[in-house]
Write a structure and sequence with these properties.
With 442 residues, the chain is α/β, with parallel strands linked by helices. 45% of the residues lie in helices and 14% in strands. It contains 19 helices and 14 strands. The protein has an eight-stranded mixed sheet with strand order 3-2-1-4-5-6-7-8, sandwiched between helices. Strands 11-10-9-12-13-14 form a six-stranded parallel sheet. Helix 1 crosses helix 3 and helix 9 packs across helix 12. The longest helix has 32 residues. It is globular, with a radius of gyration of 24 Å.
Length: 442
């Protein structure tokens, strides 16, 4: 089929490349000229495992094209995916301006009947507004069917999720349009859910909100475990064996980050408020998560006292492994609070430093060498569970740090393994292993 994808961000580019790899003729359109020029050279503007080789392959075989020209991009398209950004406004509402602009461009440039699929995450009712835009602006003799097709791609495993996801959700009012979308996805052999448009919109928000709730819940249990002497690893394992609960998203830590969970939970609370429905549960989830972001710094103060003048190694900047995305990353909160405490910060990350530098600037030092980050450090914070951190020999902490004191926000290490070394190790929801005597604490 002839497919056009509006937006060359994390969702749009993966969608375009993966449909091209599946054998379709795909054009990806974006307003940023520099980004399109990069893509035409086979270079991805962000890191996603496996994406760049597929990008190069499908450029070479002629199935994938890029453009900044809406007229060229939408001419002849049978299915158009809207995958532009939906950033958060200051009041928590979703900024839909890019969605509407893309809809205007589509309506004004199509020359044939088309299905327009909203893949961006949008509040319930957004597709009704998109329909109105097309009714008012498209050529009268053309038919446009609007379909909600929310994405469920995880950064770091987006390509696998595209081809091997849990479900495809298609929200449509026209059975014919729904059928065409089903045929598009059938080769992937993923369960397909066909529903009305508003339900499809809600599925996306409800899914992310529920996962965020599980994370905040297990973090609260972890904090309680520390106070009563239980071990969260054993607790979460025992919970996860219950098929009604399951083991996923029961790993304690310093809270969720990234653009999806944070933005979508706040947006759902905002949406509920708009219809006079106080979403108290989700408000608590957000509050718990925000409190959890500061947990490591509070633990450091409890053990070390003043952090002023101390050198801190922050290990991991990206909000999760296998991505260079630092949007809503917990590391940003940690670094901000350490700087306010008067600490000197050196941050390690294998790929996210350029993006972090844009936000943090030169107020900290950066390195892609984990041992360089640890050199001379008074304590280390683990903010992202990169494999490079998880597989780092414990001897490295002992060799390079002034004193090996680790505050692990992702429970990267086994207590059984680390207690063999003279290391102070503070994790989440588990007993602290301490070599710092009370007299040594500042």
């Amino acid at each position: 089929m002839r497919i056009t994808v509006a937006g060359a961000g994390n969702v749009g580019l993966v969608t375009a490349v993966c449909f091209a790899e599946a054998g379709h003729q795909v054009t990806c359109v974006d307003t940023q000229k520099e980004k399109i020029e990069m893509l035409e050279k086979g270079q991805s503007p962000f890191f996603e495992p496996g994406l760049e080789p597929l990008l190069e392959k499908n450029l070479a075989n002629g199935r994938l094209h890029f453009s900044t020209n809406p007229k060229d991009a939408y001419r002849g398209a049978e299915i158009i995916f809207i995958a532009v950004g939906t950033p958060e406004k200051k009041d928590g509402a979703v900024d839909l301006s890019y969605i509407y602009i893309a809809s205007y461009h589509i309506a004004e440039n199509i020359e044939n009947d088309v299905i327009v699929c909203t893949k961006s995450t949008v509040p319930v009712g957004t597709n009704e507004i998109i329909k109105q835009i097309f009714q008012n602006r498209k050529p009268r003799h053309l038919r446009v069917d609007v379909v909600s097709n929310p994405e469920f791609l995880r950064e770091g495993s987006a390509i696998m999720d595209f081809y091997l996801g849990d479900r495809i959700v298609i929200g449509a009012d026209n059975p014919e349009a729904a059928s065409i979308m089903e045929q598009l996805y059938l080769p992937f052999k993923i369960p397909i859910v066909v529903t009305d448009i508003k339900s499809a919109e809600m599925i996306k928000y409800a899914s992310n909100a529920f996962l965020a709730t599980k994370i905040s819940f297990i973090n609260e249990i972890a904090n309680l475990c520390e106070k009563v002497g239980a071990n969260i690893e054993e607790v979460s394992y025992g919970m996860g064996l219950d098929k009604r609960i399951g083991p996923n998203h029961l790993q304690p830590g310093i809270g969720y980050g990234g653009s999806c969970f944070s933005k979508d939970t706040i947006a759902l609370v905002q949406l509920a408020g708009n219809v006079q429905h106080p979403f108290e549960l989700l408000e608590s989830v957000i509050k718990v998560n925000q409190h959890q972001h500061s947990l490591l710094v509070r633990k450091a103060r409890d053990i070390l006292g003043s952090l002023k003048g101390k050198k801190a190694a922050v290990l991991g900047l990206a909000f999760k492994p296998e991505t260079d995305d630092i949007r809503e990353a917990v590391s940003l909160t940690i670094i901000k609070e350490l700087l306010e405490e008067g600490s000197l910060v050196t941050a390690y990350d294998p790929i996210a430093i350029p993006n972090a530098h844009k936000l943090i600037g030169n107020s900290i030092e950066y390195t892609t060498n984990i041992r360089e980050a640890l050199k001379g450090a008074d304590f280390a914070f683990i903010a992202t569970e990169w494999d490079q951190i998880k597989h780092l020999p414990f001897d490295a902490y002992m060799t390079y740090m002034k004193e090996p004191i680790i505050f692990d926000g992702r429970n990267c290490y086994s207590l059984k393994d680390i207690q063999r070394y003279p290391i102070t190790y503070v994790s989440i929801g588990r007993p602290t292993i301490s070599t710092v005597k009370p007299a040594q604490r500042l």
